[in-house]
Structure formats: structure tokens, C-alpha cells
């Protein structure tokens, strides 16, 4: 009898609790599988009113555990603020440094540590993201790579977005930027005077560069791009050599003019587009512009990037800047800032005006040939190592411009890889120039010689950097130049051969400079020159390693770069 009553009581309890449990678990079921939720949504009726109230059970039996099903994500599963962290971690470090004293050696060491930590953290995050993209390979389409997008200003004639994205092109150049800045901070480890100002300005300059690389909204890009002007001006003005006032003004004005031309060209596109947005993705979906407006916009944007890209005849500011600025700042200018303009030319000039780029391809080809020829003449005429390296950079940029003149998927992949390889080799060469000048007191080429006897490792680094700039096999430049030649030769065969030959002659002059600087009889004034120190090895070796890595792993890196160029190549009708 007691067993029967117990059974009836349990059944009544279950009947009373079942509707409540079903209502409670329905949201969980809906979250796990909407289709199951729609098919099994319970119709919960009010529980019947019992004539008597049941006492609570002695012990509630726990519900059986369920394992929720998590959707599988095949893309880059990264934090939503990763790109913002990479961009603004250096800004935070600059703000921290402002409040740090620099009177004692310990205080200056703290400033160096904060700056180096921020730059290295940005490098680690970027490198991790690139390695993740490489592991995914071509399976990671541009839409699956990391992105941050939110509407910033909507109550305007067009919407402005805080849109940061990273595809293979962006990630490759972010690795270049963060690596060069990290090496420059290491190179400045022994700096004593105005260290706080120097590190703070470099950190802000890195924020501007990385922000411009990640920005997908046109207005946001212009803001970051123009942000370079102030720190670059102050770095040259406060820490440059003879003639720094005039050089700083020219460099700052060049950046501001580029920014003004960019803003004008971008606004022309946005106002005449049906997208009513300054976001590059929205503008691409709305379709490319045509007619005189598109032609005017193309030349405005192209000229803006040509100034920073040191294309003849708007290249003169870069030679003086490289020669006058400190070796670290010169490495940033030639290794990063110039490459940023090359990135902008591919991303925005080709991305927004594909038809105009093809229409004016012959004119761009002529500019590439002129730049290559002028680069050779400048290289042979220089009497200092720094100016020679800057002249070689002009020749390297003519290769990228040649790819823009004959754009297709192969040439553009090679152009992006050339931007990375050329940036690494230029930064390495200019940091080596600083090491040589520190030992020889900035002596001109005709007063140097015999340094290999006292500094053989320094000479080895210089020869390696020259070979990297030349594009020797197994290094990053070799794969880049091979792809450029393959992609452009069928369109402009004579121009391709001429530009390639000119670049080889310019770089051969650099190798010839190694004989003048390191070989020959030992000069008495350099008899006590030391070889590379542990600190110098610390900031030179990473650049060497990445030049080799990008060369050996080009087969893995190029497909990732190609994912960022799919839309541009498709709009150009390039082969995939």
C-alpha cells in the first residue's frame, strides 16, 4: 500500500514540474540548434490547479547532463580586438613613457623596456596571426581572415566606419613593420639623450603605420596616413644630422601633401558612388566609377602614393631624409614608410580604379622605366653609403610600379613579396650603415677601407644584405623578382628586362661598395675598430632570419598573400 502511494505521489510531482522544465530548457535548445527548437517548441499550458498542495520532494533528482554542440569555425578564430591591440599597444606605451622620468640610468632602462615590450608584443601578435593564416593556406578566403567593423559616424553625407581587417597582404606588411620597429628600438638601446622623446615618437609613428595597414575605411586610412607627419618631422628635426631643419620640413610637407591628395581623391570617389559609405568593401560592392571622375580620382590617389613611393620625379625628399635622419629613423623611412605607400597603391589605386589602371598602364610603365634609370644614375653618383642605399630603394620601387602597370595575380603577388623583401633588406642595410658610421665617424666612401680585418662579421652582414637586395636565390627577393618577371614580361617585355637590369646594376654598385669599405689595406685611423657587438647581433639577426624565411617559405606565404588580392585580380580580369 505504501509503495503504491509513493508511486502516485512521484507521478503527480513529475506532472506538476514537467511544463516548467520544458519552458526552462526551451531557450537552451534554441541556442544550440534553432531548427530543432522550431520543430520541438512546446506549447506550454497552465498547470492544472490541484485540489491539494503537494509537499516538496525529499531530494530532487539532477537532470541528465547534455553536451552542447559547438559549430566548427574553419577561419581564423582570433580575439575580436586583436588588430586594435596590434595598432594601439604602441600608443598606450607612448602614453606610459610620457610619465616616466629619465634622469638616472635605471629610469632610462625602464623607458627602453616599455618601448621594446610594446613593439615586440605587436610583432608576436602579428607573427602568430600570419602563421595561423599560413597553416590555413588557400582555404582561408579574405572573408575568413580577421576583421573589426563598426559604424563610427552615420549622421553625415556618407557613413564612416571603424573598419580594420587583415588579409594576407596586410599581415605580410604588418610583420615587416613590427619587425623593423622592434629592431630599431633594440638599436637605440644605448641612446642616452632625450630617450623618452625618441621612443615616444617612434611608438606613435608605429601606431600610424600599423593603423594605415589595417584600415579598410578610406577616411580612417587617411587619418592614420597623415598621422605620420608629426612624429616623422620631430624625429628628423630633433635627432637628425646637419641640415635636419630643412629635411624635416620637406619630409613632413611631403606626407601632408600626400594626405591632402588622398583625401581629395577618396572624397571624389565616395561622393560619386552609390554606396553612401567610405568603406572600401562597400565601395567595391557598389561597382567601380567610370568616366572623367574616375580618371581624376585615379591620378589624385596615384600621385599621393607616388610621393611616398619615391617615384621619379617626386622622389627627392627621400634621399635627404635617409641621409640626414638617425640610422634607426632612416631604416623606418626606407624599410617601412616607403613600402606603406606601395601597399596603398596596390590596395586603393588598383582596388578603386581597376579600369583606369589598365587604361593608363603604358604611362605607368614609362614612369617605372624612368625611375629605374634614375635609380641607377643616382646610385653610381653617391659618395656615402646611406645615399647609395636610398638610391637602390628607388630602383626597387620601380619593380613594384611595373607590376602596377601590368597588374595580374602573379605580378601583384610578386609586388607584395617585393615590398616585404625590399623593406627588410633596406632596413638591414641602413642599420648596418649606422654601425659603420659609429665606427668611422661618418666617413665618405673614398676614406673607408680595410674594415674586414677588424670587423669580419660586420662585412659578412653587409654582403648578405647586398645579396638580399639583389634578389639572390633562397632569399625573399629572388622569389619576388621571379614572380614579377613572370607576370609582367608578357605585357611589357622590353620594359621588364630594362627595369630588372637596372635594378641589378644598382645593387651591384652596393656590392662594389663592400670592396671599397671592407677590403684593401687597413687604414691607420680604423686600426682599432671593433666587430659587431652582442647588441648589434640582437637587432641584425632577426632581419637576416626573416629574409631567409620569406625566401624558403615563399611557396607557403604567396598563397596567403594571394587571398588578399583575389578581389583586385578579379576586377582586373587577371588569371588566378
Automatic annotation (TrEMBL):
TM spans, by residue? 81-101, 113-140, 160-188, 195-213, 219-239, 251-273, 293-317, 329-350, 362-381, 388-410, 416-437, 458-479, 491-512, 533-554
Q: How does it sit in the membrane?
A: Multi-pass membrane protein
State if ATP-binding is listed as a keyword: no
- Compartments, as annotated in UniProt: Endomembrane system; Membrane
Which controlled-vocabulary keywords does the entry list?
Answer: Membrane, Oxidoreductase, Signal, Transmembrane, Transmembrane helix
Which stretches make up the NADH:quinone oxidoreductase/Mrp antiporter transmembrane domain?
215-503
Instruction: Assign the protein's first listed, main location to one coarse class.
Output: membrane
Q: Which GO terms describe its molecular function?
A: NADH dehydrogenase (ubiquinone) activity; NADH dehydrogenase activity; ubiquinone binding
Q: What is its EC number?
A: 1.6.5.-
UniProt keyword Signal, yes or no: yes
Q: Name one GO biological process term.
A: ATP synthesis coupled electron transport
Which residues belong to the signal peptide in this entry? Answer: 1-38
What does UniProt give as GO cellular component? endomembrane system; membrane
Instruction: State the family it belongs to.
Output: Belongs to the complex I subunit 4 family.
Instruction: Specify the protein name.
Output: NADH-quinone oxidoreductase subunit M
Source organism of the structure:
Candidatus Aeolococcus gillhamiae
Amino acid at each position: 500500500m505504501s509503495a503504491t502511494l509513493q508511486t502516485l505521489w512521484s507521478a503527480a510531482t513529475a506532472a506538476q514540474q514537467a511544463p516548467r522544465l520544458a519552458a526552462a530548457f526551451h531557450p537552451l535548445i534554441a541556442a544550440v540548434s534553432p531548427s530543432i527548437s522550431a520543430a520541438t517548441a512546446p506549447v506550454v499550458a497552465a498547470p492544472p490547479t490541484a485540489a491539494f498542495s503537494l509537499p516538496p520532494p525529499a531530494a530532487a533528482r539532477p537532470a541528465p547532463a547534455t553536451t552542447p554542440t559547438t559549430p566548427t569555425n574553419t577561419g581564423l578564430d582570433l580575439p575580436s580586438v586583436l588588430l586594435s591591440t596590434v595598432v594601439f599597444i604602441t600608443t598606450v606605451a607612448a602614453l606610459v613613457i610620457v610619465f616616466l622620468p629619465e634622469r638616472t640610468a635605471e629610469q632610462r632602462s625602464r623607458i627602453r623596456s616599455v618601448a621594446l615590450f610594446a613593439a615586440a608584443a605587436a610583432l608576436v601578435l602579428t607573427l602568430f596571426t600570419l602563421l595561423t593564416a599560413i597553416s590555413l593556406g588557400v582555404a582561408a578566403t579574405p572573408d575568413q581572415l580577421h576583421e573589426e567593423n563598426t559604424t563610427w559616424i552615420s549622421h553625415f553625407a556618407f557613413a564612416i566606419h571603424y573598419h580594420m581587417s587583415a588579409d594576407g597582404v596586410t599581415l605580410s606588411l604588418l610583420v615587416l613593420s613590427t619587425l623593423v620597429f622592434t629592431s630599431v628600438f633594440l638599436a637605440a638601446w644605448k641612446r642616452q639623450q632625450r630617450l623618452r622623446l625618441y621612443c615616444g615618437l617612434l611608438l606613435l609613428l608605429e601606431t600610424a603605420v600599423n593603423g594605415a595597414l589595417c584600415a579598410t575605411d578610406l577616411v580612417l586610412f587617411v587619418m592614420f596616413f597623415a598621422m605620420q607627419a608629426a612624429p616623422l618631422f620631430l624625429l628628423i628635426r630633433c635627432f637628425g644630422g646637419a641640415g635636419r631643419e630643412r629635411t624635416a620640413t620637406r619630409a613632413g610637407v611631403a606626407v601632408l601633401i600626400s594626405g591632402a591628395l588622398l583625401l581629395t581623391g577618396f572624397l571624389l570617389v565616395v561622393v560619386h558612388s552609390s554606396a553612401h559609405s567610405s568603406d572600401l568593401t562597400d565601395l567595391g560592392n557598389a561597382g567601380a566609377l567610370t568616366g572623367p571622375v574616375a580618371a581624376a580620382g585615379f591620378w589624385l590617389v596615384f600621385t599621393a602614393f607616388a610621393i611616398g613611393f619615391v617615384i621619379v620625379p617626386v622622389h627627392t625628399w627621400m634621399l635627404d631624409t635617409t641621409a640626414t635622419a638617425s640610422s634607426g629613423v632612416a631604416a623606418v623611412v626606407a624599410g617601412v614608410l616607403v613600402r606603406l605607400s606601395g601597399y596603398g597603391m596596390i590596395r586603393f589605386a588598383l582596388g578603386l580604379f581597376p579600369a583606369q589602371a589598365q587604361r593608363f598602364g603604358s604611362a605607368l610603365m614609362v614612369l617605372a622605366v624612368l625611375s629605374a634609370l634614375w635609380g641607377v644614375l643616382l646610385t653610381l653618383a653617391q659618395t656615402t653609403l646611406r645615399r647609395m642605399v636610398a638610391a637602390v630603394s628607388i630602383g626597387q620601387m620601380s619593380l613594384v610600379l611595373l607590376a602596377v602597370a601590368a597588374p595580374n595575380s602573379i605580378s601583384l603577388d610578386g609586388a607584395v613579396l617585393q615590398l616585404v623583401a625590399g623593406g627588410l633588406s633596406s632596413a638591414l642595410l641602413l642599420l648596418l650603415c649606422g654601425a659603420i658610421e659609429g665606427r668611422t665617424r661618418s666617413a665618405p666612401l673614398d676614406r673607408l677601407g680595410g674594415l674586414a680585418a677588424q670587423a669580419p662579421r660586420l662585412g659578412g652582414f653587409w654582403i648578405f644584405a647586398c645579396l638580399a637586395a639583389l634578389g639572390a636565390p633562397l632569399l625573399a627577393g629572388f622569389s619576388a623578382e621571379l614572380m614579377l618577371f613572370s607576370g609582367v614580361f608578357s605585357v611589357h617585355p622590353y620594359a621588364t628586362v630594362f627595369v630588372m637590369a637596372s635594378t641589378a646594376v644598382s645593387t651591384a654598385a652596393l656590392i662594389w661598395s663592400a670592396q671599397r669599405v671592407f677590403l684593401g689595406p687597413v687604414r691607420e685611423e680604423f686600426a682599432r675598430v671593433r666587430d659587431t657587438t652582442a647588441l648589434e647581433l640582437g637587432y641584425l639577426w632577426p632581419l637576416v632570419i626573416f629574409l631567409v624565411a620569406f625566401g624558403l617559405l615563399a611557396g607557403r606565404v604567396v598563397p596567403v598573400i594571394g587571398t588578399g588580392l583575389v578581389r583586385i585580380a578579379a576586377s582586373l580580369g587577371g588569371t588566378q
